[in-house]
Automatic annotation (TrEMBL):
CDD domains: PTH
EC number of this enzyme: 3.1.1.29
Keywords: Cytoplasm, Hydrolase, RNA-binding, tRNA-binding
An annotated GO cellular component: cytoplasm
Name this polypeptide is given: Peptidyl-tRNA hydrolase
GO biological processes: protein quality control for misfolded or incompletely synthesized proteins; rescue of stalled ribosome
Homology family: Belongs to the PTH family.
Function field: Catalyzes the release of premature peptidyl moieties from peptidyl-tRNA molecules trapped in stalled 50S ribosomal subunits, and thus maintains levels of free tRNAs and 50S ribosomes.
Compartments, as annotated in UniProt: Cytoplasm
Active site: 22 (proton acceptor)
PROSITE patterns: PEPT_TRNA_HYDROL_1, PEPT_TRNA_HYDROL_2
NCBIfam families listed in its UniProt record: pth
Length: 192
């Protein structure tokens, strides 16, 4: 049986958060869902999901967005992993990363959470840090702006022009991790 991948797009619920930096993970998962020509459906785990395959003969994938807040992402991630029988090394968390410049991607498996409450909750719920992360750079807050205020703001107009390409690259990175492995994806996207 083909292995299933779980791709969690991190973010917050509600229209006021849809276009914020903190929701870039959900935007990437939306991009993947569009490429699969699929719509999200409610799941009993406190998430909305799309089930299917990426491309013809591609990997079986469950795209998910928690219906709760970022800092409670672990419950739905863990429940979905159990429900779909996905091992932690086949869980990919897609999230915003302030320690990476805007329009830059970094991919890794395991490691720390860098103060990211969504990742911290997933690590706790899965009982491991050994899942994969697609870290979408949103840059650091300017001046003395509070980090929480910064990530809950919409992208600037200049960033918004570049955002579609960043989302496509991020979606491509997720797909490459699943089809060719982490190292191949890192070699392609870290070289930019």
């Amino acid at each position: 049986m083909a292995e299933t991948w779980l791709v969690m797009g991190l973010g917050n619920p509600g229209p006021q958060y849809v276009n914020t930096r903190h929701n870039v993970g959900q935007m990437v998962v939306d991009t993947l869902a569009r490429s699969m020509q699929a719509s999200f459906k409610r799941h009993k785990t406190g998430a909305v999901v799309v089930e299917g395959r990426l491309g013809i003969g591609g990997p079986r994938v469950v795209l998910a967005k928690s219906t709760g807040y970022m800092n409670t992402s672990g419950g739905p991630a863990s429940a979905l992993a159990k429900f779909y029988e996905v091992d932690p090394d086949h869980v990919i968390a897609v999230h915003d990363e302030i320690d990476i410049p805007f329009d830059t991607l970094k991919l890794k498996q395991g490691g720390g959470e860098g103060g990211h409450n969504g990742l911290r909750d997933i690590s706790k719920a899965l009982g491991t840090k050994g899942y994969l992360r697609v870290r979408v750079g949103v840059g650091r807050p300017p001046g003395r702006m509070d980090t929480a205020d910064y990530v809950l703001k919409n992208f600037s107009s200049a960033e918004a022009k570049q955002l579609p390409a960043l989302l496509e690259d991020s979606a491509d990175a997720v797909e490459l991790v699943m089809t060719q492995g982490l190292t191949a994806a890192q070699q392609k996207f870290h070289a930019r």
